[in-house]
UniProtKB/TrEMBL annotation:
GO terms for cellular component: extracellular matrix; extracellular space. Gene3D superfamilies: Laminin. Residues 1-80, 88-98 have a biased composition (Basic residues). Residues 1096-1109, 1141-1160 have a biased composition (Low complexity). Pfam families: C8, TIL, VWD, WSC. Keywords: Disulfide bond, Glycoprotein. This is Zonadhesin. Residues 1-98, 1088-1160 are annotated as: Disordered. Residues 228-412, 678-863 form the VWFD domain. PANTHER family: EXTRACELLULAR MATRIX GLYCOPROTEIN RELATED (PTHR11339), VWFD DOMAIN-CONTAINING PROTEIN (PTHR11339:SF373). Residues 98-189 form the WSC domain.
Length: 1160
């Protein structure tokens, strides 16, 4: 304390000679007295130096006011005052109020800081501190990524680990803005200290941001983990995520990589290969298809880009900048906010990079990125590493349907061994060919030394490619350079960048005169859309052709900025002279220069599409009149059916909608093949008609195997089970309650009313399981179809039909029997012939009974009997009337079925017997009698259809169908009705039309209802969800709802305070995800889960508490749309028990500072 007296004495000496500024001296005197009082206190209590500092701070403020007065009075003392202030501030300059991080704290009710509140869609630490400084508070706190709280105290709150305040700020993802009920606290001061982050050791500072180095992914500060990288190059050679090489020369379309999990970042990458020149040994990548964010991006040869079929001029920004497509060096890059990047050079090389979070969750030729060398597996998981043709087996298992090719063109997946002649073998080892890839002193020496095993793999690929083109010397140099540049890209991924091209060795020539080659140029070149892109780019540098100084990119050309084109209302760029067509193809809009700017000029074409054509995008992505699938022509004047013109249908097929369709009862492409099918039907009480046409009647009410694969059919294995029930306890007959179809790990349940469950969860129509199998409506039936040709049809009441290709006929078992053309189906599961037994049917049924289970439908106490109902003479006469089962009698000239009865008389007699049997059981109840009669007649009508006989059998007095709103009945409903997912489905349908209800004109099928197109719901991961559908996350903490915003259907996600009961869990109840009680407990799953009958062996399931009631979803959890919301509140939900966090003092911000809620 003593040394601090000296400055005071010095001040006295300086002040004494100055007599004129009287007021100033008085104030200085006051300053002298205060420290003396302090010193006295210090002698008594030595532990209070902090109070002294506070008073000293207040003293600093007074000279400022004094200076203002001095300015008005006199100018001379100014210099002396400055010295005086400097002397006082120098000792305390380090202690000035500089904004600094205090820590991470709890912030549950009551709020820690509530003096002021701000939420902003671009929140940063600096923005919050400036806001709180204006409010004159001591502390600033950030929370939930975008909220800012101001206050003067942080007492009574528990301090937490900094890792709990780790949510990235919306305005700067490298800064941390609190967490869920966790607040990052900063001390407010007059100046904000620079918040430049310290970059991770695997990152570097690029344009002010820490960015992970190539081959790594993370925030650049705390995390930079190894990415998953897969490459396809050359003829092609596929280098998997885990570093294994796969060589095969297939010309089909293949699944390169795909995410296994269904979420907002789900994606797939497919490649289409082709032959080039006269060489029939090797293939190269022709197109790359990327599907993500409900967008289908196609990159074609030369770098042309289509999005959802429409040609796009680069650069492109979609889904609020979550998806970008642009040129980066010699590549076209697809960049996503989820961290997935796909690069294609437009010639042969494809590179896919995914974040580390996808490790072990991928599939495709690229493997799964699990860190193990086990990628030599087929799609079904079969290890083929020891097979001679392993590469072809892998490639073929990942072949995909191809819409980019003529349907008649046959592709092939081959494993052609490449042999190299001795002369060529010596040549390829020369340093200027492939030799340098093994030379530790060559032009690639730095990389060869760093990754020798990888260099060896690329050397083998180079030799293979060169030997494949031995007979085409003109292409050898191109093939060599393609192989070498692939290796150079691999080196760059490993952090080794090389200048390897020269004027005489693989030069990269720029086609545009306004471009120059650079071995390392900006990853985001300047464009007409963003001329300053390079100055803020954080992507890695690339080699390629770049615009000269003063030029910018306009799609693939370099022009002066004054020559840039137009932007339409969607933000799409169009160069000058380019066109875009109207929705009906009657008008065109041309981008032209007008004065100093540009604009679209409307041009009327006066053209109309042919009746068999649609105004849509052609293969080049240009909107024009295109003939429908199955027709050929110019789209305006001609659209002729392909059948009979370009190709002929199979002799057992016919032309439908321009396509060859196999006749009823046959399966195939309609051109090369139309194979027979086997059909099994269960209808009525039920009566089972086997694949080979035998009838089995039994009234069991258990669960049974209808048909299943008995031998390994690879991906075509299936199992169809039916659960029967009795409509009343006294009934002698039973009916089908629901159908279960098993494909792989998927269990599809078709319930009453055509409700669909997949693995216990409700699904909406149409449903597509990654093109492996689909569920859709087809006439009066719900149809499950697999790509193996196996289909199951269910009318939602009692009729089930199983259809399989004949080639699988001997590989199945079940009540339906085998399809071997022999009447030998009256056998048990063990193969015992019981045709001569009295209880034949019950013996067969009980042998195929599925193990009993408690499904709430009596399966645990069911029975299988042969008790056939008795029919009195009166009942028999009643049911054989012409408006009942009598319409199936042979010789009934008034029957609408007479044509079919004459064709399949024996089958008709069996259906008549079944109808009488069921009707007699319900003859006393008119309504039930009518229902069971219609079930049997509907089943027989389906049988007629399989034999090629279409019947209009319904009458106003005979089983009329009542259609729902916006529907009408038709006896020829398309087998592929127009839906919200595919409004043009019926134009490319190969399924036979049948009777049923169809949507009125102007309406589309939304699940099982018909709605106007503007009321269609949302599509996510290829599947459909009607408007207002609510999806709940696996832990019940997040709700996603399909809503309509500005004429567009989008998903909006919010978090809810749904904490399940300790004896509950997040599970499924009637197909809906919610909190449910564990087994042995009863209640709502949230507030109550009681054990009505305590069991000593029961162990209650204790679950961890759910996360906070509401939160801002991480960027990795966001999908392709965004929406604005006011102060965040939990959605109104029966399960929500906690109110919105913001305090009373919290006010909703205006639109300018409104946070964005996560939209999926």
């Amino acid at each position: 304390i003593k040394p601090k007296k000296k400055p005071i004495k010095k001040n006295r000496k300086e002040i004494k000679p100055k007599k004129k500024p009287i007021k100033k001296n008085r104030k200085v005197k006051k300053q002298k007295k205060k420290p003396r009082k302090k010193n006295k206190n210090v002698k008594k209590q030595k532990k209070k130096p902090r109070k002294k500092n506070k008073k000293v701070k207040k003293q600093k403020k007074k000279p400022k006011k004094k200076n203002k007065k001095v300015k008005k009075q006199k100018k001379k003392p100014k210099k002396e005052n400055k010295k005086e202030i400097k002397q006082k501030t120098k000792p305390t300059k380090k202690n000035r109020k500089v904004s600094r991080y205090v820590g991470c704290y709890d912030d549950n009710k009551p709020r820690m800081m509530f003096k002021a509140f701000l939420q902003h869609s671009k929140m940063t630490i600096e923005r919050c501190i400036r806001f709180c400084a204006k409010k004159r508070t001591k502390f600033a706190g950030l929370e939930f990524k975008y909220q800012c709280f101001c206050g003067n105290s942080i007492s009574n709150k528990r301090k937490r680990k900094d890792s709990e305040c780790s949510l990235p700020c919306l305005g700067n993802g490298q800064q941390k803005c609190g967490g869920v009920w966790r607040i990052s606290v900063y001390k407010v001061g007059p100046t904000v200290r620079s918040l430049k982050p310290k970059c991770h050791k695997r990152a570097r500072l690029r344009n002010g941001k820490c960015v992970c180095k190539r081959g790594y992914y993370g925030d650049g500060i705390n995390v930079c983990d190894k990415s998953c990288t897969c490459m396809a190059s050359g003829d092609p050679h596929y280098k998997t995520y885990d570093g294994q090489m796969i060589h095969f020369m297939g010309t089909c379309k293949y699944l390169l990589t795909k995410s296994k999990e269904n979420n907002e970042c789900s994606f797939s990458v497919e490649v289409k290969n082709e032959r080039r020149g006269r060489n029939t040994k090797v293939a190269y990548t022709r197109t790359v298809d990327i599907k993500i964010y409900k967008k289908a991006v196609r990159i074609m040869q030369g770098g042309k880009v289509l999005i959802n079929g429409q040609k796009k001029f680069l650069p492109v920004q979609e889904n609020n900048n979550k998806l970008k497509v642009f040129r980066s060096g010699r590549f076209v890059q697809v960049w996503t906010e989820c961290g997935i990047k796909v690069n294609f050079d437009g010639r042969h090389a494809v590179y896919v990079v995914t974040p580390p979070k996808f490790k072990g969750k991928l599939e495709g030729i690229c493997g799964d990125c699990n860190g193990r060398k086990d990628d030599f597996k087929t799609r079904e998981g079969k290890d083929v590493s020891k097979e001679k043709t392993k590469f072809a087996l892998i490639g073929d298992s990942y072949s995909m349907s191809d819409d980019s090719e003529d349907p008649l063109t046959r592709c092939e997946t081959e494993d052609v061994p490449v042999q190299c002649e001795p002369r060529m073998n010596n040549l390829v080892n020369e340093p200027h060919i492939c030799g340098d890839l093994q030379n530790v002193n060559g032009r690639f020496s730095a990389c060869v030394k760093a990754i020798p095993l990888t260099a060896r793999d690329y050397y083998s690929s180079c030799v293979m490619d060169m030997c494949s083109y031995e007979g085409e010397p003109k292409l050898l140099n191109t093939v060599k350079c393609s192989s070498l540049e692939s290796f150079v890209e691999e080196c760059a991924e490993s952090g080794i960048v090389m200048k390897w091209r020269t004027d005489n060795f693989c030069p990269l020539k720029c086609k545009d005169p306004n471009m120059i080659y650079k071995s390392s140029g900006p990853g985001c070149p300047a464009t007409c859309i963003d001329p300053k892109a390079s100055s803020k780019c954080t992507l890695e540098e690339r080699e390629g052709c770049f615009c000269k100084q003063g030029f910018v990119l306009s799609d693939d050309k370099c022009i002066k900025q004054s020559e840039c084109g137009c932007k339409d209302r969607n933000g799409d760029y169009f160069p000058i002279g380019s066109k875009k067509g109207s929705n009906d193809c009657s008008k065109e809009y041309v981008c032209k220069k007008r004065g100093r700017g540009t604009r679209f000029i409307k041009v009327t074409t006066g053209k109309k599409c042919h009746r068999n054509a649609l105004c849509t995008y052609d293969t080049d992505g240009v909107r024009s009149c295109q003939c429908k699938k199955g027709f050929i022509g110019d789209g305006y004047k001609t659209c002729e059916a392909l059948c009979g013109k370009k190709y002929k249908c199979n002799k057992r097929a016919r032309c439908v909608n321009g396509q060859c369709v196999c006749n009823n009862g046959l399966y195939g492409d309609g051109i090369n093949s139309c194979e027979g099918v086997c059909t099994c039907t269960a209808a009525g009480d039920p009566h089972y008609r086997t694949f080979d046409g035998q009838m089995i009647h039994f009234m069991g009410d258990c669960k049974y195997t209808l048909s299943k694969s008995s031998e390994d059919m690879d991906e075509c294995n299936f199992d169809v089970q039916v659960k029967n029930y009795k409509k009343r306890e006294s009934a002698t007959v039973s009916f089908t309650r629901y159908v279960e179809v098993h494909f792989g790990k998927s269990i599809i349940k078709l319930d009453q009313g055509k409700t669909v469950f997949v693995n216990g969860e409700v699904k909406y129509l149409p449903f597509n399981n990654n093109d492996q199998w689909t569920v859709s409506l087809s006439g009066t039936y719900l149809k499950v179809s697999s790509r193996c040709g196996i289909s199951v049809l269910w009318d939602g009441i009692s009729v089930v039909r199983v259809v399989i290709p004949k080639k699988y006929g001997a590989m199945v078992t079940g009540i339906c029997g085998k399809c071997n053309g022999q009447k030998d189906d009256l056998r048990t599961r063990e193969g015992i012939d019981v045709s001569s037994k009295e209880n034949t049917f019950s013996l067969i049924g009980s042998s195929y009974e599925v193990s009993k289970s408690n499904d709430g439908l009596g399966s645990e106490s069911c029975s299988t009997t042969d008790d056939l109902p008795e029919c009195s003479a009166d009942a028999s006469r009643l049911v054989l009337q012409n408006d009942k089962c009598g319409v199936l009698k042979y010789g009934n000239q008034n029957s609408p079925f007479k044509e079919c009865i004459n064709k399949i008389a024996a089958t008709a007699k069996e259906y008549l017997e079944s109808c009488v049997m069921d009707a007699c059981a319900y003859s006393e109840n008119a309504d039930e009698l009518k229902q069971v009669v219609c079930m049997n007649l509907n089943a027989f009508a389906g049988e007629c259809l399989t034999h090629g006989v279409t019947i209009k059998w319904r009458r106003s007095s005979l089983c009329p169908i009542t259609c729902k709103n916006n529907m009408r009945y038709s006896d020829a409903v398309s087998g592929c009705p127009a839906t919200c997912v595919d409004p043009n489905a019926q134009n490319k349908c190969k399924d036979e039309p049948s009777e049923g209800c169809e949507c009125l004109p102007g309406f589309l099928l939304s699940d099982r209802k018909c709605v106007p197109q503007k009321e269609c719901g949302c599509i996510r991961n290829g599947n459909y969800y009607p408007l207002n559908t609510i999806l709940v996350s696996d832990d019940c903490t997040r709700r996603t709802q399909c809503v309509s915003r500005n004429g567009e259907s989008i998903f909006v996600t919010s978090s809810v305070n749904m904490k399940c009961h300790p004896n509950g869990m997040c599970g499924l109840e009637k197909g809906i995800r919610k909190c449910v009680c564990a087994e042995g407990f009863e209640g709502d799953g949230i507030r109550q889960c009681k054990n009505p009958t305590p069991r000593p062996t029961a162990t209650p399931t204790t679950l961890a508490a759910s996360p906070a009631p509401w939160r801002f979803i991480d960027d990795s959890e966001q999908n392709d749309e965004e929406d604005e919301a006011t102060t965040p509140k939990p959605p109104s939900d029966e399960a929500a028990t906690t109110k919105s966090p913001p305090n009373k003092a919290t006010k909703p911000p205006d639109k300018a500072t409104t946070a964005k809620t996560s939209i999926l």
